[in-house]
Specification:
The complex is a heterodimer of chains A (462) and B (70). Chain A has 462 residues and is of the alpha+beta class. Chain A has 3 domains: 3-107, 3-Layer(aba) Sandwich (Rossmann fold), CATH 3.40.50; 136-217, ATP-grasp fold, A domain (Dna Ligase, domain 1); 222-457, D-amino Acid Aminotransferase, Chain A, domain 1. Chain A is 35% helix and 24% strand. Chain A has helices at residues 15-27, 44-48, 67-77, 93-101, 111-118, 120-129, 145-155, 178-201, 205-208, 265-281, 314-321, 325-333, 409-421, 432-439, 442-446, 453-457, and strands spanning 9-11, 32-37, 51-56, 81-83, 105-106, 159-163, 173-175, 213-217, 222-231, 237-249, 252-258, 286-295, 300-307, 347-354, 366-367, 370-372, 379-383, 390-391, 398-406, 424-426. Chain A has an 8-stranded antiparallel β-sheet with strand order 13-12-9-10-11-14-19-17. A 5-stranded parallel β-sheet of chain A has the order 3-2-1-4-5. In chain A, strands 7-6-8 form a 3-stranded antiparallel β-sheet, with helices on one face. In chain A, strand 2, helix 2 (44-48) and strand 3 form a beta-alpha-beta unit. In chain A, helix 4 packs antiparallel against helix 5 (111-118), helix 7 (145-155) crosses helix 8 (178-201) and helix 13 (409-421) runs antiparallel to helix 14 (432-439). Chain A is globular. Chain B is mostly beta strands and 70 residues long. Chain B has one domain (2-69): OB fold (Dihydrolipoamide Acetyltransferase, E2P). Chain B has strands at residues 2-5, 10-15, 22-23, 28-34, 37-42, 47-52, 59-60, 65-69. In chain B, the strands form 2 sheets. Chain B has a 4-stranded antiparallel β-sheet with strand order 1-8-6-3, with no helix packed on it. A 4-stranded antiparallel β-sheet of chain B has the order 5-4-2-7, with no helix packed on it. The chains are: A alpha+beta (462), B mainly beta (70). Chain A binds chain B through residues 168, 170, 250, 355-356, 362-366, 392-397, and chain B through 7-11, 33-37, 39, 59. Chain B: Pfam families: Biotin_lipoyl. Chain B: Keywords: Biotin. Chain B: Residues 1-70 form the Lipoyl-binding domain.
Chain lengths: 462, 70
């Protein structure tokens, strides 16, 4: 199939990522169709699409997570392909299957690959069997506290407790002893129950059901480094470099950079090779990310999870490789075999501009009374909002991604400093002051930081 | 008497206490949800929940009264 026959492409997402996908779809000469909730009617992605369909109220379960409504919008508009973006239905194998069964092209990996990687326990076992290093942890779902306590003793404290389904750091926490484990277990179980309830409400209870919990050995001074892969129609998998995502609050990423300043060329080579093996082991097609934890001191790594979709921080890879990952996703989905010879040039950062206070990182939605984006050499802003829009409490707090590229890490940091100073957001609370503070932090500036950085900056409260 | 008010726009995800309950400093009264984050609302006073002004599923604004502890 040729790429021209893919359109119209329905973008089953919202905010900055819907806008970013629509941009490439239109540049490729295809029609872009947006779907949106009542709360998002005034956002730029709705206006910039060639056509937009209102699919429901603000509550995501009744709009962006409602597979039936999204498919109905695709049918009504004559869409021939569905791009899910990230989050919402992007890693929902049942939805991917329904898209394919409706005779549409799913812009993502095969539903089977999503299934195999969606369950973190399954994924972990599969990777271990494929020769990809994993942390000591549970191979079977942990379903009660007593089992969790036994497993933690086997693995050795500290342990990371997380749900087998779900993502985005929700329900994840570290336990240093048995008492903390009880709390961590309860939190994970509650998150698991919520994922299951949300899935059931969205009409696909099978995908995330079950209170399956996973325990893994926690690495104290770890960097979070992930490899971008692209699976091609002929079965080969290409690695497009890595991204370092160690600046995190509440286990969620705030700043990403590429190349990672914390790994040696030798370790990079091993990680890229392992990511290719991981992709090939599941017959991966399209863009995906293999997330790893790197032990900064030992220069060793373990597999964390695989994200079977476009990643929030994909612009970092685009800036250093010059590739358009959305275009590659579309071409691969159409059955083309693009020739990809990735060459990394310079250094790139992404700063996530969240609607949250810059001290405690608590949500601060609100109406945007002023919004001015920075511009300049090497500066790219992917935003979901503009002046006059309202950031509502219904969705994640990401308002924009401020990305910069430079010939060197130092130059990229200088450009970041200017760009952050030139970004004005008034109305909602925002973390731009935190981003500025981070640039002045010696650890971050040196590149020698780990996932505990933000916590240390906030006295252990993040 | 102490008033507990919302610090941000949020949905009321879970109401943990009911009127008449005895609570003490640090107890969770309700759990809000905003931008995919659970935010427990905690009392800083010991006392009895005299008024509870929110229900599960409500959308509340910054400054809205959640509870009165006496």
């Amino acid at each position: 199939m040729l790429t021209e026959t893919l359109g119209p492409v329905l973008v089953a997402n919202r905010g900055e990522i819907a806008r970013r996908i629509i941009r490439t779809v239109k540049r490729m000469g295809l029609r872009a169709i947006a779907v949106h909730s009542e709360a998002d009617a005034d956002l730029p992605f709705v206006r910039e699409a060639d056509e937009a369909v209102l699919i429901g109220p603000a509550n995501p379960a009744q709009s962006y997570l409602d597979a039936g409504k999204v498919l109905e919008a695709a049918r009504a508009t004559g869409a021939r392909a569905v791009h899910p973006g990230y989050g919402f239905l992007a890693e929902n194998a049942a939805f991917a299957r329904a898209v394919v069964e409706a005779g549409l092209v799913w812009i993502g990996p095969a539903p089977e690959a999503i299934d195999r990687m969606g369950d973190k326990i399954n994924a972990r076992n599969l990777m271990e069997d494929a020769g990809v290093p994993v942390a000591a942890g549970t191979r079977e779902p942990v379903t009660d506290l007593e089992l969790a306590q036994k497993a933690a003793l086997d693995i050795g404290y500290p342990v990371m407790v997380k749900t087998a389904g779900g993502g985005g750091g929700i329900g994840m926490s570290v336990a240093h002893d048995e008492e903390a484990l009880a709390k961590a277990y309860e939190q994970a179980a509650r998150a698991a129950a919520r994922f299951a309830a949300a899935a059931a409400e969205g009409g696909e209870g099978d995908a995330l059901a079950g209170p399956a919990i996973l325990l893994e050995r926690y690495i104290e001074r770890a960097r979070h480094v992930e490899v971008q892969i692209l699976g091609l129609p002929d079965g080969t998998v290409v690695a497009l470099g890595e991204r370092d995502c160690s600046v995190q609050r509440r286990h969620q990423k705030v700043v990403e950079e590429s190349p990672s300043p914390g790994i040696t060329p030798e370790l990079r080579e091993r990680m890229l090779a392992a990511a290719v093996r991981a992709g090939e082991a599941v017959g991966y097609l399209g863009a995906g990310t293999v997330e790893c934890l790197v032990d900064a001191d030992k220069q060793d790594f373990v597999f964390l999870e695989m994200n079977t979709r476009l990643q929030v921080e994909h612009p970092v890879t685009e800036l250093v490789t010059g590739l358009d990952l959305v275009e590659l996703q579309l071409r691969v989905a159409a059955g083309e075999q693009p020739e990809v010879r990735p060459e990394v040039r310079g250094h790139a950062f992404e700063f996530r501009v969240y609607a949250e206070d810059p001290k405690r990182f608590f949500p601060g939605p609100g109406k945007i009374t002023a919004w001015t984006e920075p511009a300049g050499e090497g500066v790219r802003v992917d935003s979901g909002y503009e002046e006059g829009n309202t950031v509502t409490p219904f969705y994640d707090p990401l308002m924009a991604k401020l990305c910069v590229h430079g010939e060197t890490r130092g130059q990229a940091l200088e450009r970041a400093r200017e760009a952050i100073a030139g970004f004005t957001v008034e109305g909602p609370k925002n973390n731009l002051p935190f981003c500025a503070e981070l640039l002045d932090e010696a650890e971050f500036a040196s590149g020698d930081y780990d996932t505990g950085l933000v916590g240390r900056m906030r006295g252990g409260r993040a | 008497m102490a008033e507990v008010r919302a610090e941000m726009v949020a949905n009321v995800w879970k109401v943990v206490v009911k009127e008449g309950d005895t609570v003490s400093d640090g107890d969770t009264l309700v759990i809000l949800e905003s931008m995919k984050m659970e935010i427990p609302v905690i009392t800083e006073d010991d006392g009895v929940v005299r008024q509870l002004k929110v229900n599960e599923g409500d959308v509340i604004q910054e400054g809205d009264l959640i509870a009165v502890i006496e």
